[in-house]
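hey team, just a heads up i'm posting the complex here instead of the shared drive bc the drive is being weird again. everything in one block, sequence lines first with there labels, then the predicted structure for the whole assembly after. its two chains so it's a bit long, scroll down
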Amino acid sequence: MELQRREFLKLVGTAAVVSSAFGVVHVASASQQVAASPSGERVVPVMCGACGAGCGLLFIERGGKRYILPNLEHPQPGMCGRPASALQMWSHPLRLKKPLKKVGDKFIEVDWDTALNEIAAKLKEVVERYGPESVVITRHDVHSWFLPLFQYLIGTPNLIGHEGTCHSASTAARAAVLGAGGPPIVDPDYENVSYLVLVGRNLDAAMGLVRQLAAARERGVKIVVVDPRAPNIAFGSVEWVPIIPGTDAAFLMAMAYVIINEGLYDADFVKRYTNAPMLVKPDGTPLGGKEVGVEGDYVAWDAADNAPAPLDKAKDPVLMLSEEARQRVGGARTVWELFVERVRKYPPDVAAKITGVPADTIVRIAREFATARGVIEDGWYAAKNGNEFDTYRLVLILNALVGNIDKRGGLCFQDSAGFPNICDPAGPDIVAVTGVKLPAPKAKRLDKLLYPLNVSTFDAVYEAILTGQPYPVKALFIVGTSPLQRDARYQMAVEALKKLELVVAIDIFPHDHVDYAHYVLPDLMFLEREEVATVRWTLHAALQKSHMALDPPPGVDARHAPWMLMEIVRRAWPDRAKAVGYDERYADPHKFEEWERQFVEAALKKVADRFKVSVDDLKKALEEKGFVVLKKKSYGVRPYKTKLGTPTGRVEIYSITALKNKLDPLPDYREPLYTRPKAPDEFYLINGKDNVVSSHFAFTPNAKYLGDRTVWMNPKDAERLGVKDGDEVELEGIDNGFKARARVRVTNRVREGVLFAYAFLGGRRSSLITGQFAYLREGVNPQWFTTGKIEPVVGSAPTNSTVRVRRL
Amino acid sequence: MTRLAHLWDQSRCIACGACIAACNASNYGSSTAPNVSWNWLRTNIRRIELSNGPRPMLYLLQCQHCENPPCVTVCPTGASYKDRDGLVKMNYDLCIGCRYCMVACPYDARWFNESMWTPVKCMGEECQARIAKGEQPVCVAVCPAGARDFGDLDDPGSSISRRLANSRYVKLLDNMGTKPKYFVVVGP
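-- predicted structure starts here --
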């Protein structure tokens, strides 16, 4: 689908100056110095950096007032409490202000040259002694586009992100069932959805989705939230289903039971677009065409010819074999038969016992979902119990059972903007977007050796640091992420960080890990830098540019992280830096943009070529409006016109990817990877976020009130234990014995038998948190109590646990 | 006549805090000083949770812009007044900081700003400037959930009038004779 130039210009707009409805002149440009309008008002398009959603915002400055508004023209407009508090982050007293160097057990301020020279020298020494793979880089979302370039300039395979405690399992499920990628690649068409089930997802981001859902609410959408605690969205008109933690898969199994049992599924879709008709041999492997004298790797029974046929050529593929047919295919069974057999383990009354959700509620929701042809959301921040690969495979399969894939109001694939990575493996080399070739790392990424279907499993790195297996890890760059709030092996992580020869923390705030860094480098916050990126969390293909709205406040000598990293490379290996056109000219951070822009422009050129538009038009739109929509979503493409990226090209109820990786090819309900509560004083300790919580936002004074550092307890449990609102209790991890104190908040927002604490908020421990911010130490970090066990193959580390509660 | 009013749709609100924090940013310069009166941030909107009932309930509380405002009645200097647009406002030049208005308000919708040494409330300065330009107050402009509206009740074509015509809503402490103009929509 190519856009005609005229249509394209209509989409991006061509006016040099955008006038608002109120006659205010909006002039937005990359540099604030030239952006002031005659009225003294500045309106600067920015992409929110408060979480990974990247919502479209406008920075407003008028009459001495500064604040953030949503960019309503943007395809994914903001906003929530986090960016609304962005100015508190900008001028925060605890912001990292100068490069710090650890001397003894204290930090001293050093100048940028000293810090960068010393880091470069140490990094070079580590690489020469232990090999480039001994250097690990970790990230969250910020700078994630740039970091692969730094990684490959060092020559390490180990750029390992946060996903192991986030969406590793749901992404593995999307890959296994739909052949698709990360969370924003597949999403409900919120605007047109008729019935929405959220399982372990609370729409705390992206706010553009909430806006779309508001449109669906006009038409009377029903929303069901399956979660042991009521997230913020459950204050509104939704049905909240407080489920026992870690039992979502049993709930979903029972939904499938009802839908199949009552014939509410879309049989045509199931036959034509899933691998339900595929024949599986008694040993569990797919029956190959050769074995029955037909073409192809996968076979179905074709009722039209009463004979086996290639899966994609059967005119009338059957879901259930006759006994005669079964004998002719060596006792093979269809995927559908196997799936139905699995589902039969979970009639609603059995699931009710596991999940704590009444059987009639399960039956009703299954019927409503199926008859409304609803959508179940496909999971984002969901590493909670270590059984999520099954949960999200079931979610995707249920969407397929009702035939609601890539349809208006269904579970849809995002149209890709095709914004390329900064560098990618190509044959034996790594090729940068500018065409420059870099040598490929020789070693394998260490977490991938253990968890081949993961996105990232950083918890595996701690073990490697301590054991030296599969190879030594000696240096770590922590870029804009907080591993000690994020990862599920807290105690092991602390020991591992102490063992490293070089730890460099690049951030804007003192997260806990900063205390273990040898060098701390202050980064720019999102209002202070520019960035071009894909617009995530919209089904349309779109790009956005975040413009610089502010300089760092006085006293904050922060720099752009990519500049720091390129300076480290240049100082360690000038020849490698030169290979990508980087030399001492760019040591001046103000000149760095010139160098960095060549990569962005090369990437934009590829997008322009793909959509047959001019780079200048693209750039103009990004400069003036902050975004460009390249193509509107087309429904009904995958799997109808284009095959899916799964081995069979279909929705895989029976996952061949799982089978090849020695996992159960069918989903099931499996026990969580931590001991369940048994005694009356034992509780699940679950955690999560809301639109007021992120690792960075936790530092703002607003978050002191909008979030909370308590542990939530149901009123019935509180009464039973004699605990009152505000009482202090001791929590003891059942699996690891860790003890900590917290105040209890008695609230009906959490199910009986369950405690809830916000992730990333409580129990901050950095020694750089002082004075009026001592309250950041209150409460618990849920990661203190986790087992550190990891879901096999998909590498998802559960962040829920079980604790014993003792009154003090 | 003009009777400007606020609408908050409890059934749609996702409690994201955008309105609360944006009020702090735009009207109070992102102040990080505490709001001692409410034990809260410096903003004109409070968040109240009902945590003991049959289901979690949220209430966002702010000035009701009463048609019969007790805070105006008790003000000894005329600093609190009802403007021709129907909004209850403050003339800070006349305020002596006696706080009678805070005591008189049955909604506890005012808080004491130690930096100004006066009680403050919705609307803040920036929101009033925005309304004068024909823009929405900040809390309405930022809401991602379509849970807020603001406009003239006397204009039947205004968005707020149309929404109220199609919604079930309540007014708080209506029995006290304050004639509040903060409409809490509870469903269609």
